[in-house]
Design goal:
CATH architecture: Roll
Strand content: 35-45%
Radius of gyration: 15 Å
Distance between the termini: 7 Å
Largest sheet: 5 strands, antiparallel
Oligomer: single chain
CATH superfamily: Hotdog Thioesterase
Shape: elongated
CATH class: Alpha Beta
Number of helices: 2
Number of domains: 1
Number of strands: 5
Length: 124
């Protein structure tokens, strides 16, 4: 499976007083990358869709004000009602951070539900 590539630049609003990307922004940027990736993948009628059930972040090298980088998102494991996704923040071929998460697919009753095949086809 090919990774989805999402380009991004660190703006002033993304940094702390020292000009280093604030740790919480990584999660926000990862969410933007996932939303860009899933654009057009619409849940079935009456379903809520994907929600993050668990998330882990590992910071390796800091990103700084003005840095251009990409977020590489990829499904690493597929379950009947969930996806394990890895998102790497890559600058100049160097991995700066890795976010791993589990996204559960839920129906309108807020319970896990099998991911529809047409939705899987759209994200894979």
């Amino acid at each position: 499976m090919t990774a989805h590539i999402f380009p991004f630049s660190i703006a002033y609003a993304d940094t702390d007083a020292g000009g280093i990307a604030y740790h919480g922004r990584y999660i926000e940027i990862a969410e933007r990358a996932r939303m860009n990736w899933l654009r057009g993948a619409v849940p079935s009628a009456g379903d809520v869709g994907f929600v993050v059930r668990e998330i882990r972040a590992r910071y390796i090298h800091p990103l700084r004000l003005g840095d251009d980088f990409t977020v590489e998102s990829e499904i690493v494991k597929r379950g009947a009602a969930s996806l394990d996704i890895e998102q790497k923040f890559v600058k100049d071929d160097s991995v700066c951070a890795i976010i791993n998460l589990t996204a559960a697919y839920i129906g309108g009753d807020m319970r896990p539900k099998r991911i529809p095949e047409e939705l899987l086809a759209a994200v894979e």
